[in-house]
């Protein structure tokens, strides 16, 4: 998600009370995997911020659960020992 300023190791603040709008950065459970993607609600697709990855259409047979909308990304410039255990 580097195309939207989210990098490996960043902490994401996710708001479960918001309703997803087209183009929002979301966290979802997609077929048993947690993903962070842009949502295209009009075409029921998950989009990558990188042009290297094709859009993924959400099919009726897919297991899809929107977990929330990413409202903030926090970059850690130094490892936080209190977070290390929960990040693996």
Characterise this structure:
- The chain has one helix at 81-84; strands spanning 11-15, 25-30, 33-40, 45-47, 56-57, 64-74.
- With 88 residues, the protein is mostly beta strands.
- Strands 1-6-2-3-4-5 form a 6-stranded antiparallel β-sheet, with no helix packed on it.
- A hairpin with an 8-residue loop joins β4 and β5.
- The mean pLDDT is 92.
So what's the CATH class? Answer: Mainly Beta
Q: Kindly give the count of domains.
A: 1
CATH topology name: Umud Fragment, subunit A
- Total helices: the number is 1
**Low-confidence sequence ranges:** none
Question: In this structure, how is the largest beta sheet organized?
Answer: 6 strands, antiparallel
Beta strand count: 6
Class by helix and strand content? mainly beta
Strand order of the largest sheet: 1-6-2-3-4-5
Which of globular, elongated, flat, extended, rod-shaped describes the shape? globular
* Architecture per CATH nomenclature, i.e. the level-2 architecture: Ribbon
What is the element string, with H for helices and E for strands? EEEEEEH
Per DSSP, what share of the residues sits in E-state strands of 2 or more residues?
35-45%
Helix content: under 10%
Rg, nearest Å: 14 Å
In whole angstroms, how far apart are the ends? 19 Å
CATH-defined superfamily = Umud Fragment, subunit A
Mean model confidence by pLDDT: 92
């Amino acid at each position: 998600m580097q195309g939207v300023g989210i990098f490996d190791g960043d902490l994401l603040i996710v708001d479960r009370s918001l309703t997803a709008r087209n183009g929002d950065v979301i966290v979802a459970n997609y077929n048993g995997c947690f993903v962070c993607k842009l949502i295209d609600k009009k075409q029921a697709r998950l989009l990558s911020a990188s042009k290297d990855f094709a859009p993924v259409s959400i099919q009726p047979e897919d297991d899809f659960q929107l977990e929330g909308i990413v409202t903030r990304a926090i970059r850690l410039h130094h490892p936080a020992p209190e977070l290390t255990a929960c990040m693996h």
